[in-house]
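Structure in, sequence out. Go:
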């Protein structure tokens, strides 16, 4: 594995030793897990066979810098003239054009996915109907830790095939956040933050803590979804039969009571998969319910903003299609249609999700629908830890003065404007 050196202000991932050739630094920004920006400097050396990447220096102030460094260590880098855009590459996770050169980052070929021209893979980063290979949609960038965990499980079988279908539970966000192990982890972190502040817990600190926890919740759920998709990719690649079941907290609690399991242990939730129902192609949930549609909510007509949401928003790996419903400038409800992660590479499944969402909106009398081509990361409301879906900023009326990127969003979510409706 490549060498990773952690210093006070940066993390260096070393790929090769220098040979004395001409060097060039590329100052790049990668959209990482859940849309987190990772800033880094990629240093390459020009040799007879072309550019060789020597190391990547990641800004330690970036969120998830250490996690990103571990993922960067597994990447394969390619640098070539932009005019050679039909250069065939392994599965690409990011691409940049810098001063006449193309810089592309690829995942290891053993994780699946075909080698294709860079020009074709570029289309997958753009809005539209350019769906990548099935394996890429299922898992855009696998988690190395989860992949190795399944590889170890396979090794312990001594080369034998899995004798029964692998049962993989999938928890939508509303079920995941209710799990005892998840709640305990974030409650403990919140308490640790309170104690770090010396016991001061006024409104100012409470709001700051809630916002930090909300960001952490969104990031942790993105990690969870990435882990599920990595497991599914591993099993599919190794031709293991798979059953995806829908996580249900109520059923799990009954299972724990009958079997003496600890709900605070993450492993117990895997054991409870035995009592979960088969996950359908599409699961509909409501969030942030503010009152029945058609109630006295003002003269504004009903309208909805529809967008895709993903743990990896710069990729086509959509997790659910969401609609935020308003009457005038008053929020009423959010509707999410979750895709079965095993069906995300099926155009028919996507059409079913959109059809289901359109039906849900029509049933509620919503005819004015705005569709966005942008895929957004997960966001969580600080005050109740529910998913925050986005709507155009002008739906909330004109705020007093101009809303700055770091100001509270006028929709009242508690998030910064740049992380909420300013992103739409």
């Amino acid at each position: 594995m490549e060498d990773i050196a952690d210093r006070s202000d940066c993390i260096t991932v070393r790929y090769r030793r220098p040979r004395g050739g001409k060097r060039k630094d590329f100052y790049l920004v990668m959209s990482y897990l859940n849309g987190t920006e990772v800033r880094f400097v990629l240093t390459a050396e020009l040799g007879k066979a072309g550019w060789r990447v020597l190391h990547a220096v990641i800004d330690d102030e970036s969120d998830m810098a250490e996690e990103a460094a571990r993922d960067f260590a597994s990447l394969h880098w390619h640098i070539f003239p932009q005019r050679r855009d039909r250069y065939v590459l392994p599965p690409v996770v990011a691409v940049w054009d810098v001063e006449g050169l193309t810089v592309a980052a690829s995942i290891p070929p053993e994780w699946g996915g075909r080698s294709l021209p860079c020009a074709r893979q570029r289309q997958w980063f753009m809005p539209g109907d350019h769906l990548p290979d099935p394996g890429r949609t299922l898992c855009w960038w696998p988690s190395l830790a989860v992949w190795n965990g399944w590889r170890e499980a396979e090794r312990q079988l001594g080369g034998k095939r899995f004798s029964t279908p692998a049962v993989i539970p999938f928890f939508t966000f509303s079920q995941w956040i209710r799990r005892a192990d998840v709640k305990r982890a974030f409650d403990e972190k919140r308490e640790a933050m309170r104690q770090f502040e010396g016991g001061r817990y006024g409104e100012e600190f409470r709001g700051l803590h809630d916002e930090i926890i909300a960001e952490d919740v969104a990031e942790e759920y993105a990690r969870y979804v990435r882990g599920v998709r990595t497991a599914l990719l591993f099993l599919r690649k190794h031709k293991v039969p798979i059953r995806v079941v829908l996580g249900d907290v109520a059923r799990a609690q009954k299972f724990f009571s009958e079997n003496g399991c600890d709900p605070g242990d993450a492993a117990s939730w895997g054991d409870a998969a035995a009592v979960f129902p088969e996950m359908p192609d599409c699961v509909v949930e409501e969030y942030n319910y503010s009152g029945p549609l058609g109630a006295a909510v003002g003269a504004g007509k009903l309208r909805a903003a529809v967008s895709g949401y993903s743990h990896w928003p710069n990729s086509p790996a959509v997790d659910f299609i969401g609609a935020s419903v308003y009457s005038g400038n008053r929020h009423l409800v959010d509707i999410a249609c979750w895709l079965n992660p095993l069906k995300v590479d099926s155009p028919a499944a996507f059409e079913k999700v959109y059809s289901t969402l359109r039906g849900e909106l029509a049933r509620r009398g919503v005819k004015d629908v705005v569709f966005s081509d942008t895929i957004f990361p997960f966001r969580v409301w600080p005050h109740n830890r529910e998913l925050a879906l986005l709507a155009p900023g002008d739906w909330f009326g004109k705020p007093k003065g101009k809303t700055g990127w770091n100001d509270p969003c006028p929709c009242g979510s508690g998030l910064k404007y740049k992380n909420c409706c300013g992103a739409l």
